[in-house]
Amino acid sequence: MKIGIVCYPTFGGSGVLATELGIALSDKGYEVHFITYKQPARLNQSFNPNIYFHEVKVPAYPLFDFPPYETALASTMVNVIVNQKLDLLHLHYAIPHASAAYFARQILKKTGKDIPFITTLHGTDITLVGKDVTYAPVVTFSINESDAITAVSDNLKEETLRHFKIEKDIHVIPNFVDIKRFFQADKEHFKQMLAPDGERILVHVSNFRAVKRVGDVVKIFEQVRKEIPAKLLMIGDGPDRLNVEEMARSMDIYNDIRFLGKQEQISEILSIADLFLLPSETESFGLSALEAMACNVPVISTNTGGLPEINVEGVSGYLSNVGDIDAMAQHAIYMLSDNDRLQQFKKGAIEQAQKFEKQRIIPMYEELYKEVIAAYKSNSVAAI
């Protein structure tokens, strides 16, 4: 089977999931073609002969204030589908990938060619951007034109059905983690460098957007630090980073925080962590939290979106209301103040992560691919 994967190539959850899925499928012998404007962040870790990358190039003309990426994407899709003889397109993040795929499909039909496409909804494409009246009609139409729809959590499925008039079933296929890549490695020398006096290490990973409430991470850490010697590692980058750095300076805790920027070897950093903080306004799933759990790191998170589906209260960590910094800080102090208690939470975290191991999840996508292709072929024959 030849599969085209269309995604954003960033460190965000949708791009990470799409890339990890493509890698996992290629390892099983499928031919995978990534179609996007830049090589996905996690695709350059090793060479795989079953993986191909097709760059979407958007010419810059003085006429355009905003280059028409969707048009360039649709044209690239057509080119790859025809020349590589793809069997299926899998689109990650509805905007603008689903509408571009519909556009490509209309072009292909004029030449007597066509393939089915699946749209996977990841979160803000539905809960934030998609609900904007500017995009909602196109998002609704293109999702309904998909041959199959998936969502990464039950919560996201419910949100989609609540806000959009979806005319077909939405399959819930959760995000997954590769526990052979995400595990607690022996990085004691690294930990000694960052916490030479045995301080607890807290970690946050995100794209530093407002929805991640990165300022809450620093405020939680400030309270924890008053009770327990600790360090905070902030991984990622984005629009709120400078403000949060300035906040840390004004609170006189900056020297105990390391802003590491974007990192590819996340598992090595998580291997030295004692606690993961994710106080987001909303999370459709919380892939970064799952990867932390796989590295034996319990999670303090909000109880929003799909987070309660992966972070189990009192087992893999704790959940609190959005903005309840005091509760999150107290839960963190409770976990970090006793070694035996912390070890029990670490055990609970890895056991919870194993429920989402990729070998359990990838077959769900494979089965859906086969069903969609079979139905498409059957409809094509009926049309003839």
Could you provide a short overview of the structure?
The protein is built from 14 helices and 13 strands.
List keywords for this structure.
alpha/beta; Rossmann fold; 7-stranded parallel sheet; 44% helix; elongated
Report on this structure.
Strand 6, helix 6 and strand 7 form a beta-alpha-beta unit. The chain is elongated. It is built from 14 helices and 13 strands. It has two domains: 201 residues, Glycogen Phosphorylase B (Rossmann fold); 169 residues, Glycogen Phosphorylase B (Rossmann fold, 3-Layer(aba) Sandwich), CATH 3.40.50. The model has no long low-confidence stretch (mean pLDDT 91). Helix 2 crosses helix 3, helix 3 packs across helix 5 and helix 11 crosses helix 13. The strands form two sheets. Strands 3-2-1-4-5-6-7 form a seven-stranded parallel beta sheet, sandwiched between helices. The protein is of the alpha/beta class and 384 residues long.
